[in-house]
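Hi D.,

Good news: the full-assembly prediction came through. Inputs first.
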Amino acid sequence: MSLFHTARWCGFAVAITASIAAANEQHEKTAVEKSTTAMLVEPFLERFCIECHNADQRKGDRDFEELPSEISDDDSLVDFQDILDQLNVAEMPPPESVQPTDADRLRIVQALTDAIGGYHAEKANVGGRTVLRRLNSREYRNTVRDLLQIDTTIFDPTLRFPRDQTVEHLDNIGDALVTSSYLLANYLDAAEAVIKRAIYPLEKPTVKQWSFRDNFRQQPEVDNVHKQVNGFKHMTLYDVIGADKPEGAYGPILEFAQGVPADGIYEIRVRAEAVNRLHPYDESFVGTDRDEPFRLGIVPGDQTAGELHLHQAVEPLLAEIELADEPKWYTVRIPLQRGLTPRFTFRNGLMDVRGLWTKLIKKYPDQFPRNLSGIVEYRRAAISQGKLPQIHIHEIEIRGPIVDPWPTASQRMLLGDDFVRVAKGESLSEEQLRHYIGRFASHAYRRQASGLEIDQIMRVVKLQSERGTSSLEAFADGCKTILCSPNFLMLAEPTEQDQNTLTQDALASRLSYFLWSSTPDETLRQLANEGQLSDDEVLRSQVRRLLEDPRSEAFIRGFLDSWLALRDLGSAPPDRGDFVDFYRHELGEAMRTETELFFRTMLKENLDLNNFIDSNFTFVNRPLAKHYGIDAPAGADFHRVTLPDRRRGGLLGQASVLTVSANGIDTSPVVRGVWMLENFLGTPPSPPPPDVQPLDPDTRGATSIRDQLSKHRQTPTCYECHRKIDPLGFALENYDPIGRWRSSYGRNVPIDPSGELPDGKTFGDIVQLKEILMDRNVQVKRSIAQKMLAYATGRQVVPSDRFHIDRAANAATGARDLVEQIVLSEPFRNN
Amino acid sequence: MTPFHSPRRLFLKAAGVSVALPALESRGKSLASETHSPLPRRMVCIGNEFGMYPGAFWPTAPQNQVGANPEALSPLLEPLRRHRKDFTVFSHLDHGLNGGHFAVHTFLTGVKSTDAKSMVDGGISLDQRAAEHVGSQTRFPSLTVGSESGLHGGCRISWTRTGTRVPPIAGPRELFRRLFVDGGANEKSQAFDRLDLQGSILDAVMGDAKDLSRRLNPNDRRKLDEYLSSVRDVELKLDLDRRWQNVPKPNALIDEPTDLGLTRDLPKLYDLIALALQTDSTRIATLEIGGSFAASDLGIKKGYHSLSHHGQVQANIDLLVQIEKYQVEQYARFLDRLASTVEPDSDGSLLDRTMVLFGSGMGNANSHTNHDLPIILAGGGFRHGKLLELPEPSLQRVPLSNLYVSMLQQFGVETDTFANSTGTLRGLETI
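Then the structure:
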């Protein structure tokens, strides 16, 4: 059966108009093919496979003795697909065994391909289904942000939600997302917080102004010295925020510890200067970059959450200012919430200055008084007489809140023009209340809310009115109820009457949660209402529109987290002693940004998917470029750079991937090899047998991990899988646990990154391995397509998806093509 | 076997006749309608993330020698010397699981969270199973202290039967506030209004859910059932909150602490847990000593996780043992405190009725194995003072869950199974 035929039959299946005659014809054809398949496949298996994959040996956990000669169910489908995949990449039979001729191989590949295609065609009507899935935390956050147009730079209603369960790194699999009583209790609190932010304050807050010119106390460790040296006339910043026991890393305004009185935008003016940028000391000793201007950061602080001079759980960077080497005024605008106070940070400052005080005086004893001892005296001398880089802030002015427009977008969204009079205490009629409740419910539920559903909410509104709350409060309580309803919290994905195709509303939601992790906007809702989303061209153009919208950041991050496990970056924190730069330069964040910009660019320019395997470009900021040992661009921003050689090309050269596949302490070829098989190549190895003797690492001697592993591999049962795992990992051994290039493991134990793949192909290093992988790009593309389909539909793929995955992967050259193909595919449009 | 009646039996008999006892001043006011058991049973479980270095943990002495031969304590058990009659160390106990760091969270459940669904009790952890038994008798059915940070999300040892991790209380300050800080009159009235509103919201969304349920297929309906049962659970919780709103919280005997990081906070956390037990605010507490435990606060320059990968380098092992010893010292200090606090209306101490389990889901951090877990059980009315050596895994492995069955029975839970247990733990006797 030709591929064309299969495809055509699928088309019929979707339309559900296939006549009985057509079905019969199909049935006959399959029956004939099955016997030819059996005639070819059985002797082949007998000759080349059964020797190892039998009931006794079960090598690779596979036994083909009992395999039916035709695909009878999904289990045998998996086995057939497996055999086909192995033959396609020529991994099986292993090099040391008897090999089929090329003609044999081709014939069997064709027969298996046809058999699998035929099976899929038969099963076209019973694809995977996405189970009712609740919004995960980030979807919830984005949804309320877009629904109510509230600023979520700092505000995070999901902060206390239990962490979402993941399946193979995917955080949006309906089946795995549990609704627990903890979560539901949090939904109640979150709804209250969200609605409060959307509706209040009822009166436009008046703009206030505060000035601070002296009395800049900061933190106990340095205050004593500052009092003597400068009388608190200016604030002084030393450490970066990544320092272990930071001193002068966070400059709080202690006279403004109570924070701003209302939510809104605040204008911050500072008179600040970079001091000692061109310090007289050894550059590598001090560690700041003489070529870079100092950068002042602003983060929020909350005195009820802990000390203002220390790290706090919620501190997004709100603004960044490049400073001149003399005092100047700078003005920025930042969002703040009631009770939050701005704090100043030194983005490219010193690292662990607490230790540096002492080291400075010991290194330059001539420049300081003799006979000093103890941290207190060293610190005093270093601050008063030393010339370490620092930032001084002389004056600060805060003005705000600047609320524009009024009523706010959120208030208008909820109550339109009626907001102003309701805010003054006027009551709304029941009819008006019902109108606004119905309007919000239809937005929140991503479809027209029914009369019955509005009745449910109105009961709460009326009950609250009877309890004596104002019209506005009762309305607000109704809105809170809407945000706790399963109609809002869950993505029900209904299909058209008696069909598998999603309704237009459901398809609009599926599309927006795929590419925005958020609720569909007016345009999508409109297209759904008009029934236009079943049109391929409309879908295609919507994919492009959604990808161009800033909300697609959620897809970039969400998909990379689900595919490459980048979410786990930092969950195994690199050792501070060995990898201080990681903390000094916030490299974790930079690594993530690199990979996100890389993916973003591939989508935007629709670049060839092969760039994931190897590329001649990437994105770096200055610290990351230094980390990679390539020419560093000036300034703090990320730049697209052309790579001087191929060691950093593709995802396998990016520090994000190399860090997340290590544990922050050391690297393991096994762990990285498994990581690559699972995530990059989409062919996870079988788990180790239960009685395996674990490796007890011994780093005392001069043996490398490779030596220790080779002993392990001498056991035949271990060898079976490790011949697939280890070579991939060996190739990555040239990268240390945070992705720096290395050619030996300390103490002159050289690294041998070469390896031999199961099919006998050999490589000398990662660059050569990538060349081999380029020849197998089909496998990589399929693995991405598979992950993307799972991410897009919120369910794990099932065997019958394979046909559609292959079709999407084959039809796509560029990264954006693939997204479009996934959206156009049947599993995406069906449920 | 012990010739004495087990307290469990006594308790079961007593519960039937509803003995009226005078309200215990130090125990705070219980809800008036509750039926009192004579004396409460309590359980505290402490788990760390990287285990205990085996070479310094396992007592070399033969069975039962810990108590008899005071010289036989291992370096990591040395801080417990003064309690040597009060605890038992178990060898060769584990859950038979693999996964390195990714199996640490099974310490109290015996099953991986991904397999929880297939278990009868949904992978519930020991502490939460016991908490179900306590129900609404205390203000907090249980308290779990820990953090979301740390390697791969920390220890994550406390799990509900719906397969969700119990969200941990992050530090001493939050724990203090929950235990002791009451709102003013105004706040209280607001709290009641809020509970009323939340009750109405739940009524309405329950209606929504039922409407929705009718339109769903069986698979989706099962998923929605999670939501429905959560609504019911929260309704019960709101009822409980409403009732407890009228009962003032006990007086704090200490000032509100600030959070200084887990290493420095550890003594305070133990103190607060002891106070929580003493005031009968809860009978179950769980403490996760996760990867956020900073070795630098002990003056150690290397990272805790890094040292656990010691690679057999002696200098690393010494530092690792120093960190672990600190953890055992704090545990010992906690036992001191429980042993020196008198159980009201009895001649015993709090420790006599509090099972204090200390251990980890990690057996050997250097090789990332999860067998031969380090397990210490103190107090709680068991006959202690020995190393209980169980059969080698290669012979007839005894599941750690058997110990949990014994503990649950001692706690008063009528069960003879937990996770993959095969019975109670033979050789562990009650007093």
